[in-house]
Structure formats: structure tokens, C-alpha cells
User: Fold this.
Amino acid sequence: MTSDISVSVAQIVAELGGELMGKADMAVARIAPLDAPDEPPFIAFLSNPKYRSQLASTRARCVIVHPSVREEAAACPSAILTEDPYLYFAYLTQWWAARFRPSLGQGIHPSAVIDPTAEIEPGVVVGPLAVVESGARIGSGAIIGAHTVVGPRAVVGAQTRLAPHVTVGADCHIGQRCIIHSGVVIGADGFGFAPHKGQWIKIEQLGAVRIGNDVEIGANTCIDRGALDDTLIGHGVKLDNLIQVGHNVQIGDHTAMAGCVGIAGSTRIGSGCTIGGAAMILGHLTLADGVHISAATVVSSSIHKPGQYTGFFPLDDNAAWEKNAATLRHLHALRDRIRALEKQNK
Amino acid sequence: MTSDISVSVAQIVAELGGELMGKADMAVARIAPLDAPDEPPFIAFLSNPKYRSQLASTRARCVIVHPSVREEAAACPSAILTEDPYLYFAYLTQWWAARFRPSLGQGIHPSAVIDPTAEIEPGVVVGPLAVVESGARIGSGAIIGAHTVVGPRAVVGAQTRLAPHVTVGADCHIGQRCIIHSGVVIGADGFGFAPHKGQWIKIEQLGAVRIGNDVEIGANTCIDRGALDDTLIGHGVKLDNLIQVGHNVQIGDHTAMAGCVGIAGSTRIGSGCTIGGAAMILGHLTLADGVHISAATVVSSSIHKPGQYTGFFPLDDNAAWEKNAATLRHLHALRDRIRALEKQNK
Amino acid sequence: MTSDISVSVAQIVAELGGELMGKADMAVARIAPLDAPDEPPFIAFLSNPKYRSQLASTRARCVIVHPSVREEAAACPSAILTEDPYLYFAYLTQWWAARFRPSLGQGIHPSAVIDPTAEIEPGVVVGPLAVVESGARIGSGAIIGAHTVVGPRAVVGAQTRLAPHVTVGADCHIGQRCIIHSGVVIGADGFGFAPHKGQWIKIEQLGAVRIGNDVEIGANTCIDRGALDDTLIGHGVKLDNLIQVGHNVQIGDHTAMAGCVGIAGSTRIGSGCTIGGAAMILGHLTLADGVHISAATVVSSSIHKPGQYTGFFPLDDNAAWEKNAATLRHLHALRDRIRALEKQNK
Assistant:
């Protein structure tokens, strides 16, 4: 970000709406947390009215708040009242980035290696040393980062942005307006082998990966190609970093997953689900729409009812854990002893 | 895959064996699951006789089945009878890929950077912008993907295929007929430090990595170089994506690991083992041949007996989990209370 | 390593100190474990006096030991006595690598793509096909590996070494003398979205990543940029492979984390902590200085007291686990039954 930004609060409201309270000509140079230091001048947001007391001490020149905290917000030089301050903040970051973030270059860098049979639509940016292989198609306005490889016959939709060091395998499709971060591997072989006399015989993975529109995929996440059919990622899906998506997995629209999640092959996850960090979902399962899995939870059977599901060992100090864990290995026997006592006491 | 494939069932049996039943001139254009739509025409397989009822409704032109379901398979236009349909399917995918998958290019791309002291045997394919450093040796018929880096003095065996964006560190050896997927890092430094006055003093990692023949390594998996000796991966080992193999680990022949597994330093895993997804095996342990670890299981001590081992918290709805997890922290005390009751009841 | 190394024990002591015992002209060609084969001649260390009996059988030409095992060490041709043999070994590996490891090249490879506005200080090595973007600054003596991308306005400190295939995002800062391994992604977008009508609205990540001096980051580890403020990694922090560090995380000086750890957004970890492999720390938590988390442990609330904390399900053979896990889902009910029994017995 350049350092000589100055935006008036009135300008923000003109662009993004909301009710302006206080000094309309108040200028801000950055977006920052409520407790940030005074300089450079900043705009902040308060999404949870529970923390309204923070408005008394913030040095923000403008706060984005819910109308219910109008009174407390009056302590600030200016405020923007809006029904959903967190959503307003999201749109503000987008407006800010579009306006002030330096551009990612333009045109095709001369060091990029583009096969003559690739189709590159107008307005595409291709970074240094990127590779676009035979028959690949890049939609208008897409950005292909430095060192990114778009494989043979792969398709990258319009306005999609691939960061540096992305690998898109042969025949894989990525929709429009997606963001794919560095180190992502789309379309490596799924993990499929037939056991034979103590060895593993490879099952060639003949499917590909199909990704919808408005999908974001975090750094070093892997999405394997299908064995026969394609692996499918729905519209609006958001995947964090270091996630493993096995072959023939299907993920429904607008499902989100935090970092380090693993989804084994052929599992189908519904739409509108959330999967907490480091959760592990075994293969060939079905999760209904609206299922929410807590962090670090293992899903070992299908879930047909929406709701929140959890399963991880609670943390304790090490000595207490050792005693409880040792006892846990005899839990079933303890149950039998309780039963025996109950019989005696009848 | 090109779209104008046509293979007769007789041709498949001529190549791969099996007993042909029904129309020998039946043509297929793809391999697909039993429940795939009618067009394009396809061949499918049924590996588990339990699902034999699916043969009544499949639109497959040919089914690969065990002789025991011969009768049900007669409902299909043609069938191939074989003792191990899944294995037959594996070989069919290999035959199919070899025949119909577009080639990965040929020769050395002019944009590749190859040190003059590197030895490249005949028939090697080097993709765009790949780097082969000083003293490296690439065996005949090997494929080095776009953007892959083969470090100084590293060895890549004959017929081995490195996908784009692979990193092979200095002095590491990869055997023959291996497949290494994108993002794999072979030979980064192992994690070794001596504690000293609250800081960590680096132990330079002077070993390398040695990988046998017929090994497959999934996307973004890491295999660290040894501290003094080499990290060793046996023949026929299959590693899925996003696996961490610490320094000086030894993995026996034909062991397979699903995604997201972690193996800490100096652990020795036997041959013919399977490790489920997201399992974590601590350091300096020994696992015997034929040990099978379930997904998401933590192995904190050596296992000397073959068998299936498991340890993860069972999933529950969140409210039930909260109650059980809270109680679990008092499990040892509960045991003592049961004991006390038992004494009273004597 | 070249194969004609020969170092005398006297030379090592002259460089690194310690009390020399036995033959000063004893020559070694490698550093190896105590139980290594005789040739080539080697030097070994014994850090734990508990294993002193190994000194009787080792074929090492020289052993690095604590003075308390002086007597047993006299069985070896030579010995170096030092208060901390493991630390001595660490320094020896450093001296060895500096002396015998082939250099990583010099100067700027002609195939590298360096923006004319980037500042490259003297003595920098840039590998083949590396990319240094506009406004980036590379400190003196730094090494930028093949295929590594240093983004716009990013800063790499003096003597820092980036392995091949590293991605450093725009505006991120890396301190001096750091080692960043292959596949590391610094500065991908943090995972931030505002929910809105069943969809996820992106919060542009306007912060960056700031990394202190003497930090080591393992292969394929990801450190996300902050939403508004920067993600902060202190001095001397050591991160192993495949670790996820979410946006706005803060990690205190000299904290170390083993592989596959996940740290969710905005969590603050103190200094001098250790986090075991595959541990998962949820977001918005605080861990005090000197907290030690065992492998595979989930941290779901803040920890304010130093100590060792653990929480993972103990491994068992699969049949026993199944019974205990099933019973665990009724643990709270079991507790109630114990209470009822206790009331009856009063």
C-alpha cells in the first residue's frame, strides 16, 4: 500500500452507502482495528455490540457500527451506521484494495512460455516465467501469476486470478472470478491402487477437476483429479490453506473449510457447510447441506442431519491427561463394573 | 482425453486377458462407473459381488466381473470375467492412459536451464523452464515437468516422471519408474536444533534422501533429508498428498500412506504397512511389518505386532460431545469412585 | 558432499574448543551415528550419558562426550570432552557444512527475471529463473533459490537463504540470517469472509507478514498475510514443514513448532514455546511464554500458565478402541450412574 492515501468519510458513504454521522470531511489513510494507534488516521468497525464500550477509547476517526450503538459512536469524530458492520467492512476492504493496491502488471510478460495453440482472451495478464500449455484457454481479464503452470487443455475462467507458483493440471476447469493462491495443485493424480501380491498396482486417474465460479483456494491446498469422473467444487466454495481434497470428492456451493482439513476420496459434502481446521473426513461418505464440523474432528460416517458436530480430545495438563488417557483404555470395562454394581444394588 | 475414442471389447481382452462373454465387437469410448449415463458408450467394473444387483440397471456396454456373477452379467451386452476385477480395472486404466492420454512433450524444451555438467540420458523429456543443476543425472525415458528443479548431484532414475513444480534437493536419489507429483519437496533440511540458552542452534542436515523404484509421491508432500544418514523410502511405497516425512525416517517396501499423515524424525516403518489419512506417528519409533494405522490416529509408542490400530475421538453432536469431553477430564477420578463403590459392596 | 574429506581431530578442537583426549592426529571423513560402519572413518557424539555403554562398541575414531563419561570414552582412539556434546555436535555440523558443502552458485543467474526497480545489495546470489519484482529489496549475501518469487516491495534480509520454489508475497519482510525452505508461501491472503445471504463476501487482506531474524521455515509451510495489521513471527522462531499460520497470528521469539501444526487466525503464542507435530491451535487465543503443547493436541482455549499440555486419544488395537470409543459416547451418562450408586450407598 502506498503511504499517501487520504479518503474522506463522505466519499466512502457515497460509494458504499450507510448513514453518515459526525464530520463528513474526516479523512482516513487506512483501515485498522479499533485499538490501533492514532497515526496514520484510520477507520475501524465494531461488529459485535457487546464490545460497544471500546468506542469510548478508540482513536479511530470514523467507526462503522450498527444503529443500536449510535449513542456510543457519537464519541468518535464520525461514524457510519449500517445494519451489518462486518459486511460493510468486507466491502470497504474490497473498495480499498481495488483503489489503492498496486496493479499486478499488464499484458503477457516476455519471459512467459505460452504454447501457440493456447487461447488467451483480451485483457489477460501473464506474469514472468509462467507457462500456458497446449490447448489451454484463459478467459478475459484473468491473471496468471509468475511461475504458474496452466496445463494442457486446462481452462481458466474470466477474471480469475492465479497467484505465483500455482499448478493447474491437464484438462482441469476453473470458473470465473476465482482466486487461487500460491502452491495450490489442482489435478494431481488421485490416490488409487489395486492391491496385488503385496504390491500396489496404479489406477490411472482419467478424470479431471471442475471448479465453479467465485471459488477461493488457499496456499498449498491440493485438489486431486478424479479416477473416472471429475472431482467437483461448487460455486462460492472457500478453501483455506493446506487442505487435501481427494479424488471424486464433491463439495456443494458456498461451503467453507479452514486450514489443514483432509477430505478422503469420493466423499460428498453438501452446500452451506463449514468444516473447522484440521478436521478429517473419511472417504465415501455423504454430509448433508448445512452440516458444521468443528475443528480437529474426525468424521467417520455419513451425516444426514444439519447441525454442529464435534469430536476431539479435550486438552489438559500433561499429568492429568496421562491418567485420564490410561483410564480411557479401560472405559468399556469400567462400564461393565458399573453395571455389576447396579445389579448388586437392585 | 480426446473424444473420438473407440475400443472393441475383443481388443481389450486380447491385450489384458480374461474370458469374454457376449458381443465381442461391442465398442466403448470410456471407462466409467456402473451408474454412468448411457453416452458415450462405456465399460465398467464390479469388484464386490455384494453389489451384483447393480448389473441389472447399468447401461455399460461391457462389465468386468468375477466369474461368480456370470449369470447377472449376462444382462449386459458383453462382459469380461476375471478373478480380480479391480486389478483388471487397474491394468485397463494403465492401458487406456498409455494409448489415449496426450503425450507429455518430447525432448528438452529450449527454455529449460540445464547445467552443462548434468548428465541427461537418451529419451528424456524436460519441460519448459525446468532447471537441472550441476552434476545431476537423469535416467533414460524420465520426464522432468515444467518448472521442476533437480538439484546439484541429484539422481532421477529411468522412466521416472516428475510433474511440474517438483523440487529435488542436492544429492537426493530417486529410483526408476517413480511418479512424483507437483509441489513435492524432496530433501529440504530436517528439523534439527540443539537448545542453547533459550535459543535453537541449527544442526546442519548432512544426509540426503534415497527413494526406491516404483514409488509414487502425492502433491505437496515433503520428505526431509537426513541429519547424518539418509532418509530412506523403500520400493513400491505409495504416499498421498500433503504428507510430512521427517529426517532419517525409514519406510519399508510397499507401504502406503493416505493424505495429511505426519511421520516424525528417525521413525522406522515396516513393509506392507498402511497408514490412514491424517495419522500422526511420533519420532524414534519402530512399526513392524504389516501394521495398519487407522485415519487420524496418533502413534506414540512402537508397535511390534502386525494388526489394525486406532485412536481417535468419536464424533458426536456438539452438545453431547461437550458433556462427554468435560466428563472425560475426570475419568480417572470416576474410576476411583467405582473402586470405592466396589469396596463398599463387598 | 565430496568424498575425499579428511579432517584431524586436533583441527576440530582448534576450531570449536573442547578438551582433546587420545590421538590428536586421528583423521575423520564424516560425522556419523555411534553405530555407523567403520569406513569411511567418522566422528560421533554421545549426548545422553545413559547410553555410555555404546562407547564400548562404537567404531568411531573420535567421540564427542561429556566429561562424566571420560573413562568409557578412553576406549575410543580419541575423544572430545565438552559440557554439552549435543551443542558441540550442532556447531560441528555447521563448521562441516561451511567447509565441505558445495557452494550454491554466485552472482545473478542470467535467466533470472529481476525488475529494474528492485534493489539487490552486493554479494547476493540469485538462482536460475528466480523472479524479483518491482521495488523488492534483497540484503547483502542473501541467496534467492531457483524459481523463487520475491513479490513487489518485499524485503529479504542480509544473509537470508531462500531455497528453490519459495513464494514471498508483496510487501512482506523477512529478517536476516533466515532459512526458508522450498514450497514455503509467505503472504497468501488470510482466510477472511463476511457471511451474507448464504454466501461469503471476501475481506481483502490488507496487512502483510513480518518475520524476524534467524528464523527457519520448513518446506511447504504457509504464513498468511494479516487482514489489517501484519502477521508477526519473532526472532529465532523455528517452524517445521507443512505448518499453517493464519492471518494476524503472532509467534514469540525462539518458539519452535514441529510439522503439520495449524495455528488459526489472530492467535498469539508466547516466546520459548514448543508445539508438537500436528497440534492444532484455534483462533483468537493467547498462549503464555513457555507453554509446551504435545503432538496432535487441540488447543481450544487460552493457556496462561507455562507447562506441558496434552490431549489426544490414546492408540489401541482396533477392537479395543471400538468398544472404548462407543462407551465414551455415553460417558456423561456413566457419571450419572456412578452418582446414583453413590447416593444409594450412603
In short: Residues 71 and 200 of chain B are 69 Å apart (CA to CA). The domain at 113-309 of chain B is CATH 2.160.10.10 (UDP N-Acetylglucosamine Acyltransferase; domain 1).
